Amino acid sequence: AVQNNPNTTLVTPTAPIKNETHGGRAKCLQRLVRLDLPVPPTVAISFQAVQRIATGDMPDVAAVVAEMPEGALMCVRPSSQDPDWGGPGAVLNIGINNQRFQELCESIGEEAAAAIYTRFVQSYAVNVARLDPDMFDDVTGDGRSALAQSLHAYEVETEEEFPQDPTVQLTAVLRSMARAWDGTSARLLRQAKGAPGDAGLGLVVQEMAFGVGQGQCGSGVLQLVDSETGLPQITGRYLSQSQGRDALQGDAATMYLTKDPRGPSLEELAPEAFKELVEHAALMRRKLRAEMQVEFVIEDGKLHILDGVRVARSSRAAVRIAVALADEGIIPREEALMRVQPRTLTELLHRQVEPGAKRDVIGRGIAASPGAATGKMVFSATDAQASASRGENCILIRRETSPEDIRGMHAAVAVLTERGGITSHAAVIGRGMGLPCVVGASNLKFNARRKQLITSDGRVFNEGDEITVDGSSGEIIAGAVEMREAALDDNFTRLMAWAEDAADIGIRANADTPADAQTARNFDAHGIGLCRTEHMFFDPGRLTVMREMIFAETGEDRRAVLERLLPMQRDDFTQLFRIMQGQPVCIRLFDPPLHEFLPMDKAGQRELADALDLPLSNVTRRIEAMSEYNPMLGLRGVRLGVTVPEIYEMQARAIFEATIEASRDGEPVVPEIMIPLVSAKREVELVKTSIDAVAAAVRNEQDAIFTYRLGVMVETPRAALRAAEIAPNCAFLSFGTNDLTQMTYGLSRDDAGRFMSDYVQQGVFAEDPFHVLDTDGVGELLQLGAARGRQAQPGITLSICGEHGGNPESIAFCRDAGFDYVSCSPFRVPVARLAAAQLAI
Ligand code: PEP
Ligand code: MG
User: Given 56, 312, 580, 808, which is the most exposed site by the fewest CB atoms within 10 A?
Assistant: First the structure.
């Protein structure tokens, strides 16, 4: 009957069952059947059929029942395309009724039979008939009495007899599971895990193997590796006289699997079955080419294999497992690279609090996602986004999180919630993103309205205060703490080396400080793609000099102050060149508006007047005069280079002198100098002339030989459109997609956070375009600019250095557009490299 029906298919070695039509569980069961493992008879119901079932259009359920051995009980389990997308819980023991109960009393004993029937009545009432679970609160005792009470409660509540026909029971179960998949919360949950809106659900109906009855009976799971470390080790759980997921309940009195001095083990109690089980698991590992968790039942000493799923694994274990399978020749290296999700690497890469560090612990919760981070407290997703767009690290603090908070989580460096457990939304999503997360910090009082966190001893922390969240220990710490960089093991290094071999697009890092550069170097970045030099001036020791420079009345005065900044810049660059050891370093000339360096408050202005020995009114007047209506579109970037040329001249000199210095003890350095915010060819010509002159002067003074590469940062739409006339003066074009996105949309990157979630929720933007490159609009400018630039200057180096450089989807776009490299924050280099490798495979 069912064999010929593509929608309800008996799982045989040759049945047409696919992941995309019947789901991963159905496909896996077919593989187990092909391996001739002792799998009970199974029928797979397709996505299409389940979709129809949800609307009430039932397939031939009687035919499904007919595939099961006479009088067998059944279970139904979900089979989605990707097991991570979840699905409704399994329903066990379908088909039990008064008559079958009597028969079971004979075969497995009254107690076990009554427990099975009771369990089914209760789960059917709650999950299928959607009755209130409280209705069974009064059921007392066990055995026949509990069964009779449960049946009675059901009948009182529904005014119907408990359904006796297995076909009727199965029909109702299938319908309720199909509908559960369609529910809003299930949909949101799986979409948060990356499932498409129309993801399908398959169902598998299987003959029940009883884990209860005479002799050694029970159920459990077994795997051959440790989920945390990925090292070989038989682990799992087994519970005598149990079914379904009983053995997996946290408090279940499970047995050891292998011999153990502390208590009885499955290996001793059912040696034959255990041996067979381990052999089957090893066969599954080899043939299914993955570490599998085997779900099994032992029925009077006889082994049944119900299912196999890929073992749950930490990020570390995922890498270890992929590398080990490749080393054993079970999968090729390319496959190993495909097995690790780029984003999960982030978890391995996170910093941890230095074990011996002094810490002021203000609260504790559940350590839900490893790694530690320090940031300013914010109390909403919108504030988190606003904070991120200002380039500030923030900690998102919520009572609990919901899917609307995901964007805020992306913007935060860590998440802290008052409620929830290890499987709460914040915990699951945090782990998925590799974001440090502590949940259920119930000894802290959260006041979202006042934006305050109050400790149990009354200390108050306000929005903007700095705290550290340690997702590895569950501690919440006041202020910043000493951190230890991520410990990356040999497996990680090897996987990265394979990725390096496979990838066909370069990965550089955005690095402004020696520490950033060292991280980039440790991850084997192919150089620095963007060094934002202005970050070097915010150092307190330099800020006053910087301000003095800004306040200089004449070019000459300004040059005099710049003389004092020169050695500082030269040291910065020498360090970067030395750390990068001959890898290219792309230095961007000064970019922000000058007034960003000036104090906005009266106290700061008074201090400045004091430091510069000027009347306060003079300082205030100058600051007012410099203020702009729209600073991001005002006097910044190359516009400063053209109108205040002394700054770029000083920077160029510092770069060239550092070049000579660093080349003395290593390979000759060829610095890359990048001009920001260009929109016209003439801007480049002017800056080029002046930098060439500085280069000639330095060569002359020091009698040294060096070259340099000059390039343009394409971050205005006009620069992309006019790339053909800009490119001839350039060795490279680097697309600054942060500003380019801002200007293409006419959307302030500093303010968009306030309403971005509304925009995404209402479907105006599919994603935040500052996070995932808008390939339609901004992407078209990238393609245009790249093509025009390349045509005018064949061989010109093309790259992207906006935040998008570390985003796998955006990397795919840049690779398709023929870019030479992407540049992203140092910690994202491995993620970007793995993503690039996967694209090339
Ligand atoms: C950009 O605009 O994309 C960029 C990388 O520069 P910044 O973020 O410093 O403006
Ligand atoms: Mg920019």
Answer: 56
